[in-house]
Amino acid sequence: MAIEIKNNRFHIYNNEMSYVIEISEQDDLLNLYYGARIDAEDIRLPKRGRNIVCNADDNNVMYSLSVLPQEYPSSGASDFRSPAYEIETDKGLHTPELKYKSYEIIEGKPPIKGLPAVYTEDDSEAQTIVITTADEIHGIEVKLYYTVFENQNVICRHSEITNISNQYMYLNNAQSVSLDFPAGDYEYIHLEGAWAREKHIDRNAVHKGTQGFESRRGASGHAENPFLMFFDKGSNEDYGNVYGISLVYSGNHKFTLEQEMYENVRIQAGINQFNFRFKLNKGENFITPEAVMVYSQNGFAKMTNTFHKLYRTRLCRGKWRDKTRPILINNWEATYFDFTKEKLLEIADAASKIGIELFVLDDGWFGKRNNDECSLGDWYENKEKLGGTLRELAEEMNKRGLKFGLWFEPEMISPDSDLYRTHPDWAVSIPNVRPHLSRNQLVLDYTRADVREYIIERLTDVLSGANIEYVKWDMNRNMSDVYSLNLPADRQGEFYHRYILGLYEVLEKITSAFPDILFEGCAGGGGRNDPGMLYYMPQNWASDDTDATERLYIQYGGSMVYPASTVGAHVSAVPNHQTGRISLLSMRGTVAMNGAFGYELDLSKLDKSELGEMKKQIEFYKNNRELVMTGDYYRLLNPFTSRHSAWMYVSEDKSRALVYYVVKDTRPENETVYLKLKGLDENAKYIINGETKSGRTLMNYGIVVDKAERDGDNMIFELEKR
Ligand code: GLA
After folding, report:
1. d(Cα 211, Cα 612) in Å, to the nearest integer?
2. Rounded to the nearest whole angstrom, what is the distance from the C-alpha of residue 474 to the centroid of ligand 1?
């Protein structure tokens, strides 16, 4: 790995990948190449004139910014494509033109102040270059950060924009990344969805004009995960140049692909410009969230495994990062708000008998909360409902050999709450305008320090008052009526971002004050399932949809970027509460075991045979969870395009593997599936179901699956190197 500077070029590379930036004679930063490893000195920019463009050099009509690939394009300075940033000075000017100034190389990767980011544990893992550009007339300086990893095809980018003028200015746009690709046939995938239908694969051809996706909801959202895969047309799991861009951010985001008149493609990702306007006084700066770019020369699987390893080991933090996760029972779908201490203990008794390790008490334990109409913000235990204190309940759970966990929704406030009655000004709403409720609740104004202090004080009190070893941090509404009494008129455009900064500050304080607690993020399921949250919480409730068939889609889409260790997945009751579907218990187990595994149903109502089957699932998961958490991941059959779904994990040394297969929707006389495995050692022999087969046979010929005919039929194959 190195960052090499020669002949006005920065070559950012490792053994497999190159990223080349050129400083032009005119001091513009040009984005020369990004892809498989090359020798940087061999390439050059096309020298080709174009009609009706503006030339950016009076002495060279061929030199035009609207044709050249750029690193961090300005607006108005003769490039007519989307700019990477936009400012408005006190004179109303919008046309800066950044020129190269200097660079600095840093060993390792510096943290980003106030924002979550990928990190290194040792400086030898990565190298960072900071390139400074500036427009001295407009008084703006932009530092571009690039970190390249030695052993992984990862480049992390973000920028730092500083007002170096003597006046204030507004920043109206600040992208984390801008990339220009030459004309070609490209496609892209994004993960779209809705509540209970998150992270579905949507694959499209890149076409002329602007396309993309975004969130304006104040959270990364159910509808569009902050993740893009851009690739050569026809790429698949094993073939093609693939670029994954993942934004480490939990708020409004935007991803844009723009194919312009000469068919070049500009890709940008960053904070959404929607209602974004950030005031920078003299000397102040703005730091964009980090964009993590992963390159694979060999299709989607390699990109996936790069993201998985990076996010598992260099984004997630804390004691739980490298620990296998306890199998939990959550009472939400079992009881909803309607529980008593006796009921909870009945479920706990059944849970501990089958080997479950953690009891999670979901919504309804605080204030007067017996439905979703009140009490958010009143984080005081409801002793009457709990038949005692939380401390006593936790002790009861511990006596049964179970850890105890608790649900919170700390960013919300119910109009019917003591908190709202005392502090109506703490809710996000516009003065004298009736706010729009969602699930009967409003959002707390996390831009305010007093709100953040209150929440930290309340959570600290509850978490230190009982033996709580797990927290589910929920967030169940999007932001409307956005206005903060905390901000002057010309800073209201900062609200969305300041909210997220406030949230990150609270998360940092709470998670570091309680380092032993396992935190799981949630937002009505997967409404904020993004890398930003994973920095604070190593797992995320992937969806409120617990239906096993629906989970095949959700977990397949999510697997593109997020490792199984981060995916909360539970077995629930049938008929399923979201879809009414009845699926086999074995299928529900097989699907949910691909993540941080748990159950979410009333175990006390199940018969002996069901509990017996669950006990076996739990034993199997305990024996295999290490591999699920840390193995390389391969998608084998795509549920979006096939009637089956299959995937597998392979240990790093290729000595063990686990293969999962499910019939998603069958038909009579269905075809026989040959399941071609991936990632094995082709020269090794593996024992699979008592038989010995070579890695190369298993990968080239496959496993013949001839006993799967009915919906939900499923199999798990365990492979061990002989
Ligand atoms: C959200 C979560 C659920 C559950 C409920 C409780 O919908 O996603 O898992 O915790 O809130 O109100």
Report:
1. 51
2. 7
- Is ligand 1 within 6 A of the CB of residue 415? no
The finding on whether 522 has its CB within 6 A of some atom of ligand 1 is yes
**Shortest-distance Cα residue to atom 11 of ligand 1:** 524
Give me the half-sphere count of Cα atoms (radius 13 Å) on the Cβ side of residue 291: 30
CATH code reported for the domain at 637-721: 2.60.40.1180
Look up residue 489 and give its two tokens. 């008129």
Residue from 195, 198, 337, 363 whose mutation best tests the ligand 1 pocket (most atoms within 8 A of CB): 363
pLDDT tens figures, 608-646 = 999 999 999 999 999 999 999 999 999 999 999 999 999
* CB 409 less than 6 A from any atom of ligand 1: no
- Distance, in Å, from the CA atom of 135 to the CA atom of 335, rounded to the nearest integer, reads 61
378 pocket-lining for ligand 1 (C-beta < 6 Å):
no
Residue positions annotated with a catalytic role: 474, 544
Helical ranges in 527-643 per DSSP H:
531-536, 548-558, 585-592, 608-630
Using DSSP's 3-state secondary structure scheme, residue 722 falls into: coil
Angle between helical axes of 495-513 and 449-465 (0-180°, round to 10): 30
Distances (CA, A) of 172 to 12, 219, 276: 30, 19, 6
Please report, in angstroms and rounded to a whole number, the separation of the first and last CA atoms in the chain.
36
328-422+467-478+515-630: CATH, from 3.20.20.70, 3.40.50.300, 3.65.10.10, 3.60.21.10: 3.20.20.70
Atom number, ligand 1, closest to the C-alpha of residue 544: 8
pLDDT in tens, 100-135: 999 999 999 999 999 999 999 999 999 999 999 999
The region, left, alpha or beta by phi > 0 then psi within -120 to 50, assigned to residue 399 is: alpha
- 474 CB near ligand 1 (under 6 Å): yes
Domain range list for the chain: 74-314, 328-422+467-478+515-630, 637-721
Which pLDDT score, from 0 to 100, does residue 50 have? 84
Residue-level pLDDT at 246 = 99
What is the band of 1 on the pLDDT scale with cuts at 50, 70, 90?
A: low
Look at domain 74-314 and name its CATH class.
mainly beta
